[in-house]
Design goal:
This protein has about 290 residues and is of the alpha/beta class. The protein contains 10 helices and 6 strands. It folds into 2 domains: about 1-20 and about 260-285; about 35-260, Rossmann fold (3-Layer(aba) Sandwich). Helix 5 (about 95-110) links the parallel strand 2 and strand 3. Helix 3 (about 35-45) packs across helix 9 (about 225-240). The longest helix is centred in the last third of the chain and has 32 residues, at about 255-285.
Length: about 290
């Protein structure tokens, strides 16, 4: 057996990895998720808001990171809709408006048709300027946003008439896949105004370690990559969509579905590392 493992062709490992990824995808395998403290904190911050509270939804990601961030954006929007919060969508990325449109189409319009544009949610769209936009709108939102994404003057939008700056928001929710993103929101919004601005975020796995130092002061909670999305998704689905015993729509289980192949592939990698070390030490003894 050890002789076989010592001379194992690496192509068998490639085949095992392909199978470990393909099987969960083909059979849509889903595994139970135990929410981490960070995911629970994100859920609690939104859950503690009251109906009608104002939430800034900063969708700073694009199609290149949608695989990790799309499910958490969907779950965050679902949670805010269920809580009947007033949602102000915006983005600092040129392709961000597509991600906003997808969230609004898939969640708000599809499952909450009673919500009215301009009264319950608004799309402020994209503004160029990177972190410069954040620096301005924390004190003077109308200095940059004179219209929404449709070109309508914000004075004609009921939910925007009394908004002067981001400090009036009850919570900032940022989904970040690149620069500018969560780090810039923390540096130029949450840090200078710790008593006025509360913030939670979701980000890619690469970004997450860079944001841990900001927890829990500037960041009240953080969803890291598809794992964080699946944990938070489970919290929202269990709390709101499984009350009547019906199976939730697949779009609200996408995080758990995408975690399937990742979990199995990681288990395979761990197993191969263990086996490789056993073979190595067996060789040393021989």
């Amino acid at each position: 057996m050890f002789h076989f493992l010592e001379n194992l062709d690496r192509r068998w490992i490639f085949l095992l990895m392909a199978i470990s990824v393909a099987v969960p995808i083909l059979f849509e395998l889903q595994f139970p998720e135990k929410p981490s403290e960070l995911a629970q904190n994100v859920f609690d911050e939104i859950e503690n808001l009251n109906e009608g509270d104002k939430v800034l939804m900063a969708w700073d990601f694009d199609p290149s990171t949608e695989g990790e961030l799309g499910p958490m954006a969907t779950a965050l929007a679902l949670h805010c809709c269920e809580k009947k919060l007033k949602m102000y969508f915006m983005t600092l990325l040129p392709v961000g408006p597509q991600m906003i449109d997808k969230t609004v189409s898939d969640v708000v319009k599809a499952d909450f048709p009673e919500l009215t544009y301009g009264e319950d949610y608004v799309n402020l769209g994209y503004k160029s300027g990177y972190e410069g936009v954040i620096k301005v709108i924390v004190t003077d939102l109308r200095g940059l946003y004179t219209t929404d994404a449709r070109g309508t003057n914000i004075d004609q939008i009921p939910m925007c008439r009394d908004i002067e700056n981001v400090q009036q928001m009850d919570l900032i929710i940022n989904v970040s896949g690149a620069y500018p993103g969560t780090k810039e929101w923390v540096q130029y919004a949450a840090t200078p105004y710790p008593n006025q601005i509360k913030m939670v975020a979701g980000c890619t796995g690469v970004q997450a370690p860079l944001l841990y130092p900001y927890i829990p002061e500037q960041l009240r909670g953080l969803l890291g990559a598809i794992k964080g999305a699946a944990e938070y998704e489970s919290l929202v689905v269990d709390h709101y969509l499984k009350k009547d015993g019906k199976e939730p729509d697949k779009k609200y289980l996408e995080g758990k579905r995408r975690m399937g192949p990742q979990l199995v592939a990681h288990l395979l990698m761990i197993g191969l590392i263990i086996i490789g070390n056993i073979v190595f030490f067996k060789q040393q003894r021989s």
